[in-house]
## 1
Amino acid sequence: MSSDSSSSSSKPLPPGMVIGPDGKPCKICTAFRNWKPRVDKSKQPPNAPAGQQKTAAMMAAFASGTGFTASQSQAQSQSTIGVEPTRPANCPPDVEQLGNATWTFLHTTAAYYPEKPTMQHRVNMLSLLRALPVLYPCSTCAQHLGENMKAHPPDVSSRTALSKWLCEEHNEVNERLGKEKFECTIEKLDERWKDGPSDGSCD
């Protein structure tokens, strides 16, 4: 191993940075906010565009959990501490965007899966799910999913069974990430992924 690689590997990693199977920082496994360094507003030139300053203050309020209702003084004080960078729309996906898109696709596919699937439906769905631990770009996510699928194999016997299985898998990930769990009843799942709320707000 060269001294170059050993010195780079001995450097402490930024918080939230994930190492890939090649031993290097994994961009697709890491959230954008952990990949890009925080911006210290106190070190920015005073002639920074007003729009940029306002956006930074808003992002600081949002990142601190105070949301968009934070007072201007709160937002300004947070902006001097340092704010997470705003991810440009034309960037490749990070782990969060990829995860959200994947879960949306899988839950929606399950919502429209037949209640009485044919053998071909079952084979195709199992092929899709079994391909994820092999092909998913985030290697750590793929490994976790593969281990979970071995412990709790996919249930493709019906639309209801598949929807609930996916919900439980998603909740396992949410729990690991410290996120709120979703209620895995078919009524709640259909409301979220197929029919929308009964108040018609999504119609």
Note: Residues 159-176 form the longest helix (18 residues).
## 2
Amino acid sequence: MAFIDTLVMGKPAWMWAIFMTIVVILLAVDLGLFHRKAREIGVRESLLLSAFYITIGLAFGAWVWLNIGPTSGKEYLTGFLVEKTLSMDNIFVMSLIFTYFGIPRIYQHRVLFYGILGVILLRGIVIALGAWLVASFHWVLYIFALLLIFTGIKMLLPGDDEPDIEENFALRIMRRFLRITPKLHGQRFFIRQPDDKTGKILTWVTPLFVAMILIEIVDVIFALDSIPAIFAITTDTFVVYTSNIFAILGLRALYFALAAVIDRFSYLKPALAMILVFIGSKIFVADLAGWEKFPSSVSLSVTIALIAGGILYSLWRTQRDPEPPSPNDKVQNAKPGDV
């Protein structure tokens, strides 16, 4: 029984056990109960699932507040909100990937579900590395802060940052070294079929598998923003990891709810850019002011204000302006199912 009180990355093992138990239950219920068979997820169901995951994430934040302290609770909520907002760009890129490969909605949940499993592991590795760097070299926090400020300013500058799926380096590598079927084969990632030239039965990967790998890579790229952001908010590894994972767990449901209307929130991106600049700047402000730490209440309040402002302004502008094009309409040279 002494094990449950053993410190693991600064927190008792029982806290980590509670967190991992909740995550495993959520994943098991998602796959085993709600989505045992491939089916299309409607907007209403997506909104309900999103509300459910957000409620679970906020409830865990309340638990952190009560069991670790108000400061940790505020830092968790700030990190949770920032990660949720960052996922908006993630959703847009996912939409481009699915459109490029012509993957229907009925199979998209399978890709996102197994993608989330990979994300949980990858984020754990990246966060553990980040925690080690911060603990060993405190000045790394200033590098993270400068990276956030630079990224935020870059996001505010005009320019088309839409990724080109066709010219993606990872896709070119997979095309070179993997046997990829030209068309989908239901919800299967791998199939056995004869080679066109030799007639030998070989294992092939399907476009569904390729899309999943690209989504994993996208998450690693987005982690370059979100991980420095959360470490600039708090260096508590437990708060960093749990806030990230609870924000990501609801990403699948949020995708189906927002993929078709993501451009309605086009003015959320400047708000996110300002959040990144603010989070990066507050480390330097705290040093100049002689504070041990920037007030967590201020961080949470500013983050909520910027996100709410970005959402409300986006909704107001899109009511006045003509309907913007869907993200799927922006994909150029996309050949559904053709890789």
Note: The first helix runs from residue 13 to 34.
